[in-house]
Design brief:
26 helices; 16% strand; 5-stranded mixed sheet; single chain; 6-stranded mixed sheet; 709 residues
């Protein structure tokens, strides 16, 4: 692939305020009119860009870092034939143009010294302080990991952890990848494709999550050129062909500027060109591009209130496209992005998309977390000491990153982590839902009540039986919308677990990993569908509270179903966590009050009890193969319900000893059956058959008052 194909170049621009351009750095601009082995003025480009954002910055530390980096890398060459120092300089200039603070730029200049030269971390710490040393070490650890296919999962687990400790580590890594992508043309096509795919799958989504749009858009164009050269060439030709034609956005921009002047609103109106991938997506979506599809209007104002004033004037003086309105100021995106989005119809019928934001919002939209400076020093200076416990809590860490750091610790293996990471990064939109206690939950778009339950309660959500959404009962599979209020409902029986069906509705890694872990630990319960079915939550009007116990009713004869202990007048209960039935191998443990709870030998609770020093009780099954059990069927009222339930029971060869039907309450009907089964092993199948009856949303063991513990 040609060098041109791997370096798309700057998008074709129209009039207006220029966006941050990260493509203008080349060897000539970097080195200036000096010899190849002497680069004393190269740092001047970085200093100029840095001073544009931080006029009072101390540049001496950058000069010292450059001297160390240049002397350390002297004699090293890149595959492109350039002196190696051009790479850390280019990476640092990228970050300087985005407004990174001095500590980040210092670490960027030194980011390859520990990896590729004889410079040590101790030297970096001694000359530049603990903060710079921490960042250099974080980037070095990422560089040491192979990017081969087999190593990718663990590579990005480490990358994620490093990002969570300090987002500046990932900022340097993203700028490093951008410069490498710019110069990728010197590599073999197959290596170009491999690096481009890794960039597409993980680094671009991470750049999006961190809000660094300036890096994300250029990386997208570079990846587009490598992985889809034909589509890229076509898009480039379409943009070039549109350059010489009349631009309808120009007339609309002039009209908008005039309207705002008359309204006495100080604003800057510019045309913001779309990058290559954006134009390609619009072309795929609409089939044929309009003249106004090659860019959007950008309106910059001074204060938040001015944004809404501009919006009011535009919607008053132009015909708005209401479906295109989005308010990301009142509800910022998960990556810190804030802006008002709208679209208006111009005088000639052309539709122009408009972005309205303050100058501060624009800087954050371009640079994301990089624009926030040093997150560990309120006064803008680098902190000098590492926390005593070695842990760092980044106050600028986005909520999605905190959640990823939590679930990556629970991922059982690198492959599971890799799969869930890619799935989570593929989510390009986040919603906010409210808890009934006043808190909020940030979830990916498409999340369900299952995700909300695990986000709020963790593993305790295994016993979730339903949810209320905006005050109304809903199924666990209900997809939540932005601004919904959700209240997961948990059963008192902590031994109950999720159904495999829950995985069909879980969108968050935390929920999927927790559900999968429970199902793997309880294979028999998973096969028996021990969890509450997603589409059978309680009807509207039912009250949350204590739910039917999933163990059989205890007796004072020493028997439950047909479990026997050698202790007269002892209450025996089957554990709800593993629901033992003959002929399972079982054991028991005495609980408070003298009752004995029976567990299957392979139940995790057995190991926990033994670890606590609890002595097991010998339990055996009685001689009778039959068992008697009381089941409660919760359902919506409908004709022939009783007949259909009776038919399902008869189909399982169970005899009805007694049956009661409570009077309907708000369309809810409860049937209680005492049944005699020829074989206890048929109980799970019987309960499944009853749950499958139309209108039935749950079938459980009867609940009885527990003995005092």
């Amino acid at each position: 692939m040609s060098a041109e194909a791997t370096n798309p170049g700057a998008p074709i621009r129209r009039r207006g305020r220029p966006r941050i351009d990260l493509r203008r750095l080349g060897r000539v601009a970097l080195l200036g009119p000096v010899s190849r082995d002497r680069l004393p003025d190269a740092i001047g480009h970085v200093a100029e860009a840095h001073r544009a954002h931080h006029p009072d910055a101390d540049l001496s530390v950058l000069h010292r870092a450059y001297v160390l980096a240049e002397s350390s890398h002297r004699g090293q060459m890149r595959k492109s034939g350039e002196p190696y120092i051009t790479h850390p300089l280019a990476v640092t200039l990228i970050l300087a143009e985005l407004g990174a603070e001095t500590t980040t730029l210092t670490a960027s200049l030194l980011h390859d010294t520990v990896e590729d030269t004889e410079v040590t971390l101790d030297q970096v710490r001694e000359q530049f302080g603990e903060e710079v040393c921490y960042l250099v070490d974080g980037v070095t650890k990422l560089e040491k990991v192979d990017y081969g296919a087999a190593a990718e999962p663990e590579t990005f687990r480490k990358m994620l952890v490093a990002t969570g400790d300090d987002v500046r580590v990932m900022s340097i890594k993203l700028a490093d990848r951008l410069h490498n992508m710019r110069t990728l043309g010197v590599m073999r096509p197959e290596k170009q494709a491999r690096i481009a795919k890794v960039t597409r799958d993980v680094l671009i989504p991470l750049a999006e999550r961190l809000g660094v749009q300036a890096l994300k858009t250029e990386l997208e164009d570079l990846v587009f050129a490598i992985l889809h050269p034909e589509e890229y060439a076509h898009t480039r030709a379409v943009i070039a062909a549109a350059t010489g034609t009349s631009d309808p956005l120009t007339a609309i921009a002039d009209n908008v500027a005039s309207v705002l002047r008359e309204a006495d609103i100080t604003a800057e109106v510019a045309i913001r060109p779309r990058h290559f991938v954006s134009v390609h997506r619009v072309r795929i979506k609409r089939g044929e591009l309009r003249g106004s599809d090659f860019g959007r209007l950008l309106v910059l104002v001074g204060e938040d209130a001015d944004c809404y004033a501009v919006l009011g004037e535009l919607h008053t003086c132009f015909t708005p496209v209401i479906s295109e309105f989005k308010d990301f100021i009142a509800s910022p995106k998960f990556n810190l992005y804030q802006s008002l989005h709208t679209a208006v119809v111009g005088p000639d019928g052309e539709v122009a998309e408009v972005l309205i934001r303050t100058h501060r919002m624009h800087n954050v939209a371009e640079a994301g977390v990089i624009a926030l400076g040093n997150p560990y020093a309120a006064d803008g200076t680098a902190s000098s000491a590492e926390p005593a416990d070695g842990e760092r809590a980044d106050p600028t860490r986005p909520g999605w990153l905190s959640r990823l750091l939590q679930w990556q610790q629970s991922a059982p293996d690198p492959d599971t982590f890799w799969t869930t990471l890619r799935a989570d990064l593929a989510q390009d939109r986040e919603i906010t839902v409210f808890r009934t206690d006043g808190g909020t939950l940030g979830l990916p778009a498409g999340a369900s009540c299952v995700d909300a339950a695990y986000a709020q309660y963790g593993d305790a959500a295994h016993s979730c039986i339903g949810a209320r959404v905006n005050g109304r009962l809903a199924t666990l599979g209900t997809v939540l919308g932005d601004g919904d209020t959700v209240q997961p409902l948990l059963a008192e029986d902590a031994g109950s677990g999720p159904s495999p069906d829950w995985l069909d509705h879980a969108r968050t890694p935390a929920a999927r990993i927790a559900i999968t872990g429970w199902l793997d630990a309880h294979p028999q319960d998973a096969r028996s569908a021990a969890g509450t079915p997603l589409e059978r939550t309680p009807p509207e009007g039912s009250r949350p509270g204590p739910q039917p116990d999933r163990s059989a009713r205890p007796t004072r004869s020493g028997r439950t179903v047909s479990a026997v202990v050698e202790r007269p007048d002892t209450t025996v209960r089957l554990a709800g966590c593993c629901t033992p039935v003959p002929p399972d191998a079982v054991t028991g443990f005495t609980v408070r009050g003298g009752a004995v709870t029976v567990h299957r030998l392979e139940c995790p609770a057995v190991a926990e009890m033994e670890a606590l020093g609890r002595m097991p009780v010998v339990v055996s099954w009685g001689d009778a193969a039959e068992c008697r059990v009381t089941l409660v069927a919760e359902s919506f009222g409908r004709p022939r319900l009783l007949a259909d339930l009776t038919e399902a029971i008869a189909g399982a060869d169970a005899a009805v000893i007694s049956a009661t039907v409570e009077p309907p309450s708000e369309q809810r009907v409860r049937h209680t059956y005492t049944l005699q089964l020829p074989d206890a092993a048929g109980l799970p199948a019987l309960m499944r058959a009853m749950r499958d009856v139309p209108g039935v949303y749950d079938v459980t063991r009867a609940q009885h008052p527990a003995a005092a513990l």
